[in-house]
Amino acid sequence: MHFTLDKQEKHCVIRLHEAKLNTLIAAELKSELLLINNQGYSNMILDLSETQYCDSSGLSAILVGNRICRNANGSFLITGLSEPVKKLISISQLDQVLIITPTLTEAIDFIFMEEIERNIKND
């Protein structure tokens, strides 16, 4: 699996450099998401701007990331969706569950707003 990580103070961006998020990639992505979470990151952004195809295994990996972050009181966002991937997520009704932003910048802004809200609630 080809990907890059951009670890920041409050979040980690995972950029998938694969045209297909399928069975061959999904298991490695799940493992990577768990490793990132174990390193203390509860906020993750999955950038799928290079991904043109996703199957049920790929959706499963995305849902694992969502669950990991939610359980750690964080946020999991996906961004850069191609039309075929966006359509699959919509058909699966996961657009009701997942946080989806059109751009990486909007995803980062969302994370910072969520962090501010959490800090206010905790004070």
What does this molecule look like?
With 123 residues, the chain is an alpha/beta fold. It has a single domain (3-110), classed as STAS domain (Transcription Regulator spoIIAA), CATH 3.30.750.24. Helices cover 49% and strands 20% of the residues. The protein is built from 4 helices and 7 strands; from the N terminus they run E-E-E-H-E-E-H-E-H-E-H. The protein has helices at 23-38, 56-71, 83-91, 104-122; strands at 3-7, 12-16, 20-21, 44-47, 53-54, 76-79, 99-101. It has a 5-stranded mixed β-sheet with strand order 1-2-4-6-7. It has a two-stranded parallel sheet with strand order 3-5. Strand 6, helix 3 and strand 7 (99-101) form a beta-alpha-beta unit. The chain is globular. The mean pLDDT is 95.
Order of helices and strands: EEEHEEHEHEH
- The rounded Rg comes to 14 Å
What's the CATH topology label? Transcription Regulator spoIIAA
The CATH homologous superfamily is called STAS domain
Number of strands: 7
Q: Give the strand content.
A: 15-25%
Strand count, sense and barrel status of the largest sheet are: 5 strands, mixed
- How far is the N terminus from the C terminus? 41 Å
What is the CATH architecture term? 2-Layer Sandwich
How is this structure best summarized?
This protein is of the alpha/beta class and 123 residues long. The chain has helices at 23-38, 56-71, 83-91, 104-122; strands at 3-7, 12-16, 20-21, 44-47, 53-54, 76-79, 99-101.
